[in-house]
Amino acid sequence: MRGWFAAALVGLALGAVQAPAMAQAEKPSDEKAKTETKPDLPPLPEDKTVDQSAVIGGRTIRYKATVGSLPVRDEDGKKIADIVYTAYTVPGGDVDRPVTFAFNGGPGASSVYLNLGAIGPKHVPFGDAGDSPSDAPVLTDNPNSWLGFTDLVFIDPVGTGFSRSLEDAEKTKKDFYANEPDIKYLSRIVYDWLVTNKRLRSPKYVIGESYGGYRAPRIAYELQTQMGVGVKGLVMVSPYLDPAAIGDETALSPLPWMINLPSMAAGQLEREGKLTPAAMADVEAYTRGQFVTDFFAGRADPVATQRLETKVAALTGLDPKIVDDLDGRIDIGTYLRETRRDEGRIGSVYDSNVTAWDPFPASADRNSGDPILNALIAPTTSAMVDFVTRVVGWDIDARYHALSYEVNEAWDRGTPDDKPVADLRRAIANDPDMAVMIAHGWNDLSCPFFGSQLLIDQMPSFGMKQRIDLNVYHGGHMFYTRDDSGAAFRQDAEAMYRR
């Protein structure tokens, strides 16, 4: 996710709580051990399974819901973390039944959004216009769940959900809060779940949302080449794929503006009741062509500049004076505030047509959180904790982190890289049977669909028909919360699984 929690979290500072530096020779071994290990935490409960059922796709499916944990061990075999997962499995099947491993993003997000919003057997309303933090967090059957064609395992990385590090802050950051170790230990968790549950022969799939879309291709390649586990298919939902390509909106490159403009136009088209694939095809054609030409012409060509500003104002619905003042370069914050300025409302970076009241409308600067991000914490947290503790009976005395700002702040981002795209290329080049689907919502400005489209256009053919499908649905980052989009997403995924 651009900005990692997207624009809503811009401004989070890097860095974890650092332990005082001290030379090893000056520290007795017992004191050193104390500084490198957290105080003893009570053990997590034993894995717990309950029988449930849900009406999915028009038929009743009976399944087992399990909340459990798997350890992460260092190279000496010492346990350094507990990873909590939620699994839904349909009994009576054999090892040929697919199993899908799901990851959300952030970094710092638990898997609750894919679980209770997209593909799990139960869901809770969040992320749509009209949803409120005080709405009752009651789970109901999810008609768009994927459980009809695959078992599901939702994994919470360290610091999210109930998953926890057993190390101090400095070691935790080194071992878990960075791109490379994140891929390594999560891939091992997938392997360990397969071995523990005797499912190594099952067709295996990985789905990741947002920064989970950064994780997914890299985990698939790690499993394929290092863990000895083949992955049959990848699904990336609103993925954050190539931070190196996006760059800075103050840079010379037109890419940031190109990537954002179609999603801004989609928001305006939806407000006008005109959002169709054909209309968006025209927007994309303009963005690839005349927009780039006029962008590079710059102020040296007044005709090109005026043409660009007039077109951008028409596409975004913004006041032409604002577009003129910004030379046609519309940043996300301006778009989200100015398109609803006359209503006193602000759009969400995750879906520009989901809005909230501006608490400080007279302020020159925006002084509010994101309408979706702020509203989804309460229903998802309450619903998940109630499910785990009351329904499943996995009793735990700990806080559940649906979104952890602490993890996000401590994350070592390193240098922006193209490793997800590189590992995706390697994985599908190495396995001609691996299927890939990328899914986006038209209105998403945190991870706009056009960024993925431009990346796919540059993929080699690998000597065969292109094997990456890009599906774009009505809605935003969490398009699946809209019933029609969730149903279409499920149908497209099932077709891929049965291919």
UniProtKB/TrEMBL annotation:
InterPro entries: AB_hydrolase_fold, Peptidase_S10, Ser_caboxypep_ser_AS. The keyword Glycoprotein applies. Residues 23-49 are annotated as: Disordered. It holds the Pfam family Peptidase_S10. Residues 27-49 have a biased composition (Basic and acidic residues). Residues 1-23 form the signal peptide. Keywords: Carboxypeptidase, Glycoprotein, Hydrolase, Protease, Signal. It comes from the Bacteria. The keyword Cytoplasm does not apply. SUPFAM superfamilies: alpha/beta-Hydrolases. PANTHER family: RETINOID-INDUCIBLE SERINE CARBOXYPEPTIDASE, SERINE PROTEASE FAMILY S10 SERINE CARBOXYPEPTIDASE. This is Peptidase S10. It comes from Stakelama saccharophila.
